[in-house]
């Protein structure tokens, strides 16, 4: 397979992403500068690891992402189709996915129905469940990392911060607004339920159409969480940190007062995912079998889900 770079899609800390045309040619020369026009097999995304990082030793997040993409195969996870070296740069060829959940949430022209949210949350949990079955935490779940293709299938992407559950963790992985309390508190031993917290925050954002728990510092983030969900009781690690973070005792807010038009079973699932103490937080299998997914309105079929007019 040979690839022609069409345009730059974006740039991150350690990589540049391009839209490219995949040309079905049996050749060792992976990159071509001859535009095939309409004569190509499909569009792909090429993630080029930046030369400065590659020259000084491969960036650790790139290694993690490559390892995760090579080991994980699931309909709700972004697929890596190829990997090669060109001019000393590592190139990861990924399936091209047109939209992101963040795009949909922010698009005022799109009406999001409760059944749509149910479909996206179920696909998100399905993909995450496959990661957890393989003992891998995602650790960076947020709407911008949840991609949706033209057929409406949601795919988890950006595995640069993913970790094997056996590895020592760093608490500052997830984007702050979606970071579990145990990570904000600085714990280095945390498990799969830190991802579940992120799913709960994302689900809440789908209903609200704006970020649910947003703050500018870790201390403010903990304060924001406690103001909404109440300062936890019987959470020993939190108790030892309260004086350090100067967090007051807050009563729990009734989520029905925030999510006024949301069904009781949806609020029940939200509450179970958004338990501050991870020991009390719902596990992924119980979340997938929660009554929310088996009651009306039933989840929208993927191909009927709303999408923006223009790809990202």
From TrEMBL:
Compartments in which it is found: Nucleus
GO biological process, one term: positive regulation of transcription by RNA polymerase II
Pfam families according to UniProt: Pkinase
PROSITE patterns: PROTEIN_KINASE_DOM (PS50011), PROTEIN_KINASE_ST (PS00108)
EC number annotated for this UniProt entry: 2.7.11.23
Protein kinase domain location: 3-293
GO molecular function: ATP binding; cyclin-dependent protein serine/threonine kinase activity; RNA polymerase II CTD heptapeptide repeat kinase activity
UniProt keyword Repeat present: no
Keywords on record: ATP-binding, Kinase, Nucleotide-binding, Nucleus, Serine/threonine-protein kinase, Transferase
Any GO CC annotation of this UniProt entry: transcription factor TFIIK complex
Record-stated family: Belongs to the protein kinase superfamily. CMGC Ser/Thr protein kinase family. CDC2/CDKX subfamily.
Protein name in the entry: [RNA-polymerase]-subunit kinase
Biological source species: Ecytonucleospora hepatopenaei
Gene: KIN28
